[in-house]
Amino acid sequence: MPPLKHLATLAVMALAALAGSGCDPQRISELEEGLSTELDVRDRFGVPDHVWDEGAGARTFEYNRQPAGLRNYMITIGADGKMSALRQVLTPENFARISPSMGMDEVRRRLGKPAKVTPYALSGETHHDWRFLEPPNTVMLFTVVTDRQMRVLRTQTGLDMNAAENNSGGGR
Q1: Are β-strands 72-77 and 50-55 bridged in parallel, bridged antiparallel, or unpaired?
Q2: Cβ of 17: how many Cβ atoms within 10 Å?
Q3: 164 band by pLDDT with thresholds 50, 70 and 90
Q4: How many whole angstroms separate alpha carbon 167 and alpha carbon 17?
């Protein structure tokens, strides 16, 4: 019985995460750069997962939708308290900016928190995975491989074999 209870709990958590991220387009449409305030952003998105200091009084709020979601948002609030930028950061353009020898702290700042982190003790590598959507409806993984010093060795992109959308043929 405990394993079933555990599965039920995971299912409820996954559905809650999907339901929350499903409202994002509505929340985004209610915000306008240069007019919306920090309070407006927090009213629609809640407490940020992380706040990045941009200097000169500006801050960027990270709203992470991983591991169940396929997007991560960075919303910048200027020194005047108004939203100056709202962007979904899990894009091929941002992935292309991740380069060898970059520190994992910079990667995190660009992409937000990963969906999954897997250390491989024997090789000394750690894989950091972000789930994202490739049109029209393919769930992909962007992976950053780091060394023991948390420096980027390489990146790779591939199909998320665990995504239900990618396994509709029943061949799990």
Answers
A1: unpaired
A2: 15
A3: confident
A4: 21
Show Cβ contacts of residue 98 under 8 Å, excluding neighbours closer than 6 positions.
Answer: 107, 110, 111, 144, 152, 155
Q: Which of 48, 44, 38 is nearest to 23 (CA)?
A: 44
d(CA 5, CA 7): 5
Single-letter amino acid code for the residue at 141: L
**To which H or E segment does residue 40 belong?**
helix 38-45
Q: How far apart are CA 90 and CA 110, in angstroms?
A: 9
Which residue ranges form the domains of the chain, and what is each CATH number? 25-88 (no CATH), 92-167 (3.30.1450.10)
Q: What is the 3 state secondary structure string of 103-127?
A: EHHHHHHHHCCCCEEEEECCCCEEE
In angstroms, the CA 11 to CA 127 distance is 25
Task: Report the distance separating Cα 157 and Cα 35, nearest Å.
Answer: 37
Reported as a single tens digit per residue, the pLDDT across 66-115 is 998 999 999 999 999 999 999 999 999 999 999 999 999 999 999 999 99
| pTM beyond cutoff 0.90 | no
